[in-house]
Amino acid sequence: MKRFIQQQRSKKQLEGPLVKKGQAHAPAPASVVAYTSILFLLILLTTATISSLWSTLSSTNNKTTSIANQTIVAADALAKHSNNETNNTTSREKPKKRPFQFQATLNCRSIENKTCSTLYPKTTTTTFEVNEDVCPKYFRWIHEDLRPWKGSGVSRDIVERAKKTAHFRLVVKKGRVYVEKYRKSIQTRDVFTIWGIMQLVRRYPGMVPDLELMFDCDDQPVILARHYSSNLMAPPPLFRYCGDRWSHDIVFPDWSFWGWAEINIRPWEHVLKDIKEGNKRIKWNDREPFAYWKGNPFVADTRQDLLKCNASNELDWNARLFAQDWIQESQQGFKQSNVANQCTYRYKIYIEGFGWSVSEKYILACDSVTLLVKPRFHDFFIRSLQPLQHYWPIRDNDKCHSIKHAVDWGNIHMQQAQEIGRAGSNFIQEELKMDYVYDYMFHLLNEYAKLLKFEPMVPEGAVELCPEAMACTGSGLEKEFMTESMVKEPSTKVPCTLPPPFEPNSLRIFYGKKLNIIRRIEKWEDNYWKNRNQHLHTHR
Ligand SMILES: *[C@@H]1O[C@H](CO)[C@@H](O)[C@H](O)[C@H]1NC(C)=O
Ligand SMILES: *[C@@H]1O[C@H](CO)[C@@H](O)[C@H](O)[C@H]1NC(C)=O
Ligand SMILES: *[C@@H]1O[C@H](CO)[C@@H](O)[C@H](O)[C@H]1NC(C)=O
Ligand SMILES: *[C@@H]1O[C@H](CO)[C@@H](O)[C@H](O)[C@H]1NC(C)=O
Ligand SMILES: *[C@@H]1O[C@H](CO)[C@@H](O)[C@H](O)[C@H]1NC(C)=O
Ligand SMILES: *[C@@H]1O[C@H](CO)[C@@H](O)[C@H](O)[C@H]1NC(C)=O
């Protein structure tokens, strides 16, 4: 954190080109700084050099040149050349193209009879531009999620304790990724999670510090806070996709950001674009004036309860609810489950399943008003969303009345309703774009690694992983999604700046404010029904 700030200050003092060589195994982030104009020079670096470098790397030639060296050499050689080419552009101008041609495509023939370490004999490092962008607010929960270890740090002993329910242990050592598998996860959750971390390492070469972590791919948090309240022992640090108020599990982006092969949901970057396009096709006013939900009702009682609000002949709660038949849909190639085509209603219901639900981001992205049934679980970004600003809260113990009121309110206050819908989808489009998902992962892992009190080791049974080792052996859609979500080149910039922890009081104020708004809406709702019932009685 301090480092980032110092860096930002120093940028302003820099006059001439400056490149610090990337420290190949530097655990600290942002130990590498490049001045903007150098990046500009790097553009001029003939792509041929680099792509041929990569093709030799991935074919038989064992030339061990690292990207870092290329950068430095190239920058020197091009220093004179630069004035020539840029004399009618300002040298401070942002580069239009990326400086590197990373190995952009999988070379599956190259992995034959080889291991990742023969395929990638050197770890790559690169130079980065400073980044003045402060990360979105939800990054602050990184500090909260790691708070149980702030005092004591993370010892090897407690990491080993987290193994009990873990599906795998992931190790980053000197920029390489190793995995020791313990159990098979549901579907390809583990595979795509590991893939995602590997892409992070590719995106920020040399920046992801050495670490060991345990990951549990199941739905519900298991590290119960009450078992560790005595402070005698820190809880085992266990990474998973969601947490709740009563647990210390560390939340991490779920697999679907890189694709959900089993149900044909493409990597997030692409889905996000599709939804953006889809939103343009049908304007809010022209959408069905009801609340839509489609999903698997059998994973949780609360979903079964929701189905009672489906419109029947006698009663219309303004809800249009559909059970997803995965077997039928898989036979039809998932044409009906394309999330980008589901933004045709003004209101969309989000309801948890057995844990948090992956559907959340797809629902919020729709430009429709998200009717959020009071959640128990949280993923890594939902905690910063505000009721009435990003979504409309729905009671979990009286869903039908709550939904009916929300829809009636929105169909009268169309302007305000649209604004809520738009704020929700803007949040998703802007603050949950893939760049920030990677930056979140980076900061979480970086802060976590700072807490480690032991030297991360590659365990005996672990295998090294590289893109070829994972994607080339995958089946159809798995391979396709991995190819699509592979980081094609290193970032030009360091990650955004991590905001500081909440002040002791501000978190309480934040939750208090949220609760007040929810109470206010519940009061509107109660009044609405009171008036309506009176109305019905007087007109009977
Ligand atoms: C990088 O360059 C330096 C000198 O320019 C050289 O000594 C070193 O061996 C090079 N490293 C690699 C990995 O090529
Ligand atoms: C400057 O640019 C011209 C063409 O635009 C090129 O022929 C010449 O070699 C360049 N000079 C230097 C010093 O690179
Ligand atoms: C740069 O400026 C010189 C004259 O100052 C001109 O001859 C040359 O064509 C310019 N180069 C480019 C790429 O515009
Ligand atoms: C740069 O120079 C080229 C020709 O050398 C010219 O077409 C272009 O408009 C110039 N750009 C600017 C921003 O002056
Ligand atoms: C890999 O090994 C198999 C048998 O061990 C051999 O048939 C094949 O030609 C090898 N492939 C390469 C690219 O060397
Ligand atoms: C809800 O009602 C609609 C319309 O009557 C119907 O098509 C749909 O199947 C119902 N949903 C469930 C889960 O029964």
TrEMBL record:
<feature type="region of interest" description="Disordered">
    <location>
        <begin position="1"/>
        <end position="22"/>
    </location>
</feature>
<protein>
    <recommendedName>
        <fullName>Glycosyl transferase CAP10 domain-containing protein</fullName>
    </recommendedName>
</protein>
<keyword id="KW-0812">Transmembrane</keyword>
<keyword id="KW-1133">Transmembrane helix</keyword>
<dbReference type="Pfam" id="PF05686">
    <property type="entry name" value="Glyco_transf_90"/>
</dbReference>
<feature type="transmembrane region" description="Helical">
    <location>
        <begin position="32"/>
        <end position="54"/>
    </location>
</feature>
<dbReference type="InterPro" id="IPR051091">
    <property type="entry name" value="O-Glucosyltr/Glycosyltrsf_90"/>
</dbReference>
<keyword id="KW-0472">Membrane</keyword>
<feature type="domain" description="Glycosyl transferase CAP10">
    <location>
        <begin position="207"/>
        <end position="455"/>
    </location>
</feature>
<dbReference type="InterPro" id="IPR006598">
    <property type="entry name" value="CAP10"/>
</dbReference>
<feature type="region of interest" description="Disordered">
    <location>
        <begin position="78"/>
        <end position="98"/>
    </location>
</feature>
